[in-house]
Specification:
The protein has 2 domains: about 180 residues, no CATH class; about 100 residues, Alpha-Beta Plaits. The protein has a 4-stranded antiparallel sheet with strand order 2-3-1-4. The protein is of the alpha+beta class and about 290 residues long. The chain starts with a helix and ends with a helix. About 20% of the residues are buried. It is elongated and about 100 Å long. It is built from 10 helices and 4 strands; from the N terminus they run ααβαβααβαβαααα.
């Protein structure tokens, strides 16, 4: 209890230094929170596209049902397929009407006869898309083969780039946070050098002297992480309606409250560790 009281006194006596330490911690964990949201969102989007019908085969009008069934059995025999769904002309028209129900003019111009029947094929692995696509293109009664490999590959490259940038920024901000807290606590230790010498003369141990400073660093980290997480979560919740309208059909939002609380817990632990590490280094340096 005495350590906590001393820690609070140290914070109150230098409010501007405390504010600087909390601000840098806030910026650090604001960045951590935002990039955590980006990683979660991009991973969900990639999984969404990987779980969708990845190869769509459109048949010519002269294609016979027997030929389509034979082709389906052929690709299923490869062992690379997770599911196959046949879409008839009538089903294609129903889907078209549902997608364009707000545009009567488009509905009047389209009938089942002009829409192609198709197969929607999902592969077990994204790497199998190319080989399945090439196999399908060899059939004379197939009009077109469309697959989403390029979409997933592009999303994966963006995710990897965002992850690299995020790790870089978090590393830089974490180092800056440690350096600033180390400097602030170092100045405080230097200013209290005479008091510390007196404490040692009356028998105070090294950890008795260190704990108030270490708790101070942990305090800066904890407050900064909570504020950074709160700001990032507030921005996410505020922008959820807009993002939901842009990501129609992708079950990405709203973000689970459990995930947000787990993220807060992880950030708190990391922040307390960074704050304690910075102050421990500062105290170790000045109390040799």
């Amino acid at each position: 209890m005495k350590f906590l009281k001393t820690t609070w006194q140290n914070v109150r006596r230098s409010p501007y230094q405390a504010l600087a330490a909390i601000l840098i911690m806030t910026l650090t964990f604001l960045v951590v929170s935002f990039f955590s949201f980006v990683f979660l969102g991009s991973s969900k989007i990639i999984k969404y596209f990987e779980s969708r019908p990845q190869v769509t085969v459109f048949f010519k009008d002269e294609a016979k049902q027997a030929d389509i069934d034979k082709l389906r059995d052929q690709i299923l025999s490869t062992g690379k397929i997770s599911s196959v769904k046949f879409i008839s002309k009538e089903q294609a028209l129903k889907i078209y009407k549902e997608q364009n129900k707000n545009d009567p003019l488009l509905l009047e111009l389209v009938t089942a006869d002009i829409l192609p029947s198709s197969l929607e094929i999902s592969t077990s692995k994204i790497e199998d898309l190319a080989s399945i696509s090439e196999t399908l293109k060899g059939s004379s009664f197939i009009q077109e083969v469309v697959f989403q490999k390029d979409v997933v590959a592009t999303l994966t490259s963006w995710t990897n780039a965002a992850r690299t940038i995020g790790i870089g920024l978090v590393s830089v901000f974490s180092l800056v946070s440690v350096f600033i807290i180390l400097t602030i606590v170092g100045i405080k230790v230097s200013q209290k050098r005479e008091d510390i010498e007196i404490m040692r003369l009356v028998g105070a141990g090294s950890w008795y002297v260190r704990w108030p400073f270490i708790l101070e660093g942990m305090f800066y980290g904890a407050i900064g992480s909570v504020v950074g997480w709160a700001v990032a979560s507030g921005v996410l919740l505020y922008s959820t309606p807009l993002l939901s309208s842009l990501l129609k059909g992708i079950p990405l939002l709203p973000v689970s409250p459990i995930f947000l609380l787990e993220l807060l817990g992880i950030e708190l632990l990391l922040a307390v560790f960074l704050g304690a590490l910075a102050t421990y280094i500062a105290v170790l340096r000045y109390l040799k």
